[in-house]
Description:
Blueprint: H1 2-62
Amino acid sequence: xxxxxxxxxxxxxxxxxxxxxxxxxxxxxxxxxxxxxxxxxxxxxxxxxxxxxxxxxxxxxxx
Length: 63
């Protein structure tokens, strides 16, 4: 009986660890997608900033 209880507890611990690892994997995949999106959008944000700065400079020089 003790052996069966010990095996049951070990299996329960393995199950809990597996769920923790799966949650961590899901979190890391979400973070990976966020970083990928930011990497794709970064050049557009920089380009928009440069265009805005250029328009502001040209407007300033025109006055």
